[in-house]
UniProtKB/TrEMBL annotation:
<dbReference type="InterPro" id="IPR012312">
    <property type="entry name" value="Hemerythrin-like"/>
</dbReference>
<protein>
    <recommendedName>
        <fullName>Hemerythrin-like domain-containing protein</fullName>
    </recommendedName>
</protein>
<dbReference type="Pfam" id="PF01814">
    <property type="entry name" value="Hemerythrin"/>
</dbReference>
<feature type="domain" description="Hemerythrin-like">
    <location>
        <begin position="24"/>
        <end position="164"/>
    </location>
</feature>
Length: 183
């Protein structure tokens, strides 16, 4: 793939010049599409939990939502591991890991995973009927994870990935390609 010349970081600071991503960065970005679809679907369902006054027991709806969240987590975990295990360490050589973009990305990964885990654990602990108020409280963890990840994906696509494209040399991009694998 032909590489575009460095563009003085314009794209990472809100500039208008797009950066063509190398294959492994493009793959990470492309993975966001199906993940976004899955999480938008579970977030819509989570937002409806507790709204229908005619439902006395929400445990079944929460269990169904948990199946969707668990399927999403099964797709999210390998994606975030590729970022945390391959991309972030390569970038950290240049910008550090204790503060700045990598620290924020890792914090957001952890925050989203914590909310998803809290949701799943709450559903697993259900005994008996769940009223609307309790169901909304449980579902709110899934909604919070969705909010974090929606913003997170946007930051990666518009800031982090273009920054990596401009920052990493060809050898590092090849190493990233080996770690990310082929699409």
């Amino acid at each position: 793939m032909e590489q575009t010349p460095h563009q003085c970081g314009a794209s990472m600071f809100g500039g208008r010049m797009p950066v063509e991503l190398c294959e492994p960065l493009a793959r990470l970005k492309k993975e966001h599409g199906p993940l976004r679809e899955q999480m938008n679907a579970f977030a819509r369902e989570a937002a409806e939990i507790g709204l229908d006054g005619g439902v006395a027991d929400w445990s079944g709806r929460l269990a169904e939502l948990k199946r969707k969240v668990d399927a999403f987590v099964g797709e999210l975990d390998p994606h975030s591991e590729r970022e945390e295990g391959a991309l972030f360490p390569l970038m950290a050589k240049y910008i550090g890991r204790e503060s700045g973009p990598i620290a924020v990305m890792e914090y957001e990964h952890d925050l989203a995973k914590t909310n998803l885990k809290k949701f799943s654990e709450a559903v697993e602990q259900i005994e008996g009927a769940v009223d609307a108020a309790k169901a909304k409280e449980i579902a709110s963890c899934a909604i919070q994870a969705h909010a974090v990840l929606t913003e997170h994906f946007m930051k990666e696509e518009n800031v982090l990935f273009p920054m990596a494209e401009n920052m990493l040399n060809e050898e590092e991009k090849a190493k990233l390609a080996r770690a990310v694998g082929s699409a």
